[in-house]
Amino acid sequence: METLKKVRTAVIGCGMISHIYIRNLKRMFAIIDLVAVCDRSPENAKRQAEAYGVPRVMTMEEIAADESIELVVNLTPAFAHYDVIRSMLLAGKHVWTEKMMTTTLEQGRELLRIADEKGLCLGVAPDTVLGAGVQTAKNIIDSGLIGDVTSCVVSINRNQSLNSEIFRFLRGEGGALPFDVGIYHIAAMTALLGPVTEVQAFGAPAPVHEAQLFSANPVGESWQVPGNNLLVGGLKFQSGALAMVHFNGNTIGEEKNGFTVYGTRGILSLGDPNTFGGYVRMTLPEADEVELPKTHGYDGTPPTDKPDGIDLGYGHRGIGVAEMAWSIRKGRPNRCSKEFGFHAMEILLGMDESAGTGKIYKMTSTFSMRPLPAGYYSTLGHGAMRGDAERSLME
Ligand SMILES: NC(=O)c1ccc[n+]([C@@H]2O[C@H](COP(=O)([O-])OP(=O)(O)OC[C@H]3O[C@@H](n4cnc5c(N)ncnc54)[C@H](O)[C@@H]3O)[C@@H](O)[C@H]2O)c1
Question: What is the pLDDT of residue 303?
C-alpha cells in the first residue's frame, strides 16, 4: 500500500485569519504536517503555537534554511505579500498565499516567473471557490440544466472605512472593498464561467475617515482607505457571457450580497461567495425557485462539536492548501493556481485602470481550473469521516 508522505508546512503571519487556518491545517487534512509558525512579531507566533499545539516558532530565515519544510502558507496583509512570497520561492518553498497575490501586476508577473523557473507551486486564495456552494453551482452549470450561461450579476457592499477602524490593514494598499472582498465574487465568477477577455468600470474613492468611536484610534485621527473603494463595471467572458459588477465600500455595513447566473434555460442564485456553503437556488420556466442539495463537501459546517467565533463563515479555510499539497505529491497542477490568482487580480486592477482611463481594459492573462469531483462529503458520521471529503482533493 502507498504510504502517505505528509507535506511539512509552515505558516507566516499569525493574525486574525491565522486562527482558522492553523486549527484546520493542524487537524483537518491528512496530507498536511504543520510544523512551524512565524510572524514579524514573535509574540503573535508564540501565542498561536501555544493555542494550537504547533511544535515550533521560527523566523523567516530559519524557515528558508530548513530543507525539510516544503510548503509555506502566507497569511500576512496584502501589502506584505510580494516580499514574503518572493523570498520563500527563492528559498525553494512551494507557497500558498492569502488574497490578493500582490498589489501590482508587475510584481505578480515576477512571482509567476520565479515559480515557473524553479518548478514550484504558488497557490492563491480565495479557496472558497473549492467549497460546496461554488462547486455545486459549477456541477449544475456543467450539467447543462440552465442551458448556456449568457450573463451574471454580482454585488457586495460594506462600510470599509468603519471596518478600517478595527482592521488596520485595510488602510494599506489592497484594503479597498473591491480588492479585499470583491475578489471573492470575481474568483467565484471565473471558477464558474472561465476566463475574462475585457473589462470596463467606473470608480470612486473612499471618503476621508475621522476616528470618533474607538479608543484604539485617537479621536480626530483621520485616514483614507486607498484607491477606488467603489467600482461598478462590466466583464466580457471568453465564453461570450457578460457580467455586471457592483462593489461598494462607501455605504453601510449591512451586507446585501448578490450573485445571479442567467442561462438560456434557467437561472441560478448563489449565496455569499465569501463563505464555503452558500446556497444554490435554481429557477426553471413554469416552476418555483428550489434550493438544490450540495453535491460536494466542505460546506463550511464547523469541523468540531464546539464551534467558536473563528468558525463563523470560515469553517473550511485551508482546503486550497490541502488541495495544493496533494497536487505536489501527485505531480499535477493545483486548482487555485497562480494563473487563477493572477487572473482574478488582473480583472480587479483592470477595472481600476479602466475607471481611471475611461477605456476598455484588455486582459493579458488566462487560466483553467478543473472542478472537484462530486459525491464526497465533509460531515459524514458527524464529522468523524471528514476524510471522505479530502479524497475529493487528491486527484
Ligand atoms: N481577517 C479576515 O477576515 C480575512 C479573511 C480572509 C482573508 N484574509 C486575508 O488574510 C491576510 C491576513 O489577514 P488578517 O486579518 O489575519 O491580518 P492581521 O493584520 O490580523 O494579521 C497579519 C499578521 O501578519 C504579520 N505580518 C505582517 N507583515 C509581516 C511580514 N512581512 N512578515 C511576517 N509577518 C508579518 C503581522 O504581525 C500580523 O500578525 C490578508 O491577506 C487578508 O486579506 C483575512
Answer: 67
Q: How far does residue 328's CA lie from ligand 1's centre (Å)?
A: 25
| Domain 7-127+317-337+364-391 = CATH 3.40.50.720 | yes
Per DSSP, the residues of 123-150 read EES-GGGGSHHHHHHHHHHHHTTT-SEE
- 353-383 pLDDT, tens digit per residue, is 999 999 999 999 999 999 999 999 887 776 6
Residue nearest to atom 6 of ligand 1 (CA): 17
Cell of 365: 492573462
In degrees, to the nearest 5, what angle opens at C-alpha 119 toward C-alphas 115 and 121?
Answer: 60
Q: How far is the CA of 248 from the centre of ligand 1 (A)?
A: 23
Q: Where are the domains of the chain?
A: 7-127+317-337+364-391, 129-297
Ligand 1 contact via 143 beta carbon (within 6 Å): no
**Short-list 177, 194, 203, 187, CA closest to 342:** 187
Cα(312)–Cα(114) distance, integer angstroms: 36
Alpha-carbon torsion (109, 112, 118, 123), positive or negative: positive
Q: At what angle do helices 338-357 and 105-118 cross, to 10 degrees?
A: 160
Q: Is 287 exposed, middle or buried (0-12, 13-18, 19+ CB in 10 A)?
A: exposed
d(C-alpha 35, C-alpha 191), whole Å = 31
15 lines ligand 1 (CB under 6 A): yes
- Candidates 3.30.360.10, 3.40.50.280, 3.40.50.300, 3.40.190.10; correct CATH number of 129-297? 3.30.360.10
Report yes or no on whether pTM surpasses 0.85.
Answer: yes
Atom from ligand 1 closest to the CA of residue 83:
31
pLDDT of res. 217: 79
Same fold, 7-127+317-337+364-391 and 129-297: no
Q: Which residues contact 290 (CB under 8 A, 6 or more apart)?
A: 281, 282
pLDDT at 324 over 90: yes
Do the bridges between strand 122-124 and strand 242-248 make them parallel or antiparallel, or are there none, so unpaired? unpaired
Residues contacting residue 216 through CB under 8 Å, at least 6 positions apart: 165, 166
Q: Is 16 in the pocket of ligand 1 (CB under 6 A)?
A: yes
State whether the beta carbon of 313 lies less than 6 angstroms from ligand 1: no
Cβ(77) to ligand 1 under 6 A?
Answer: yes
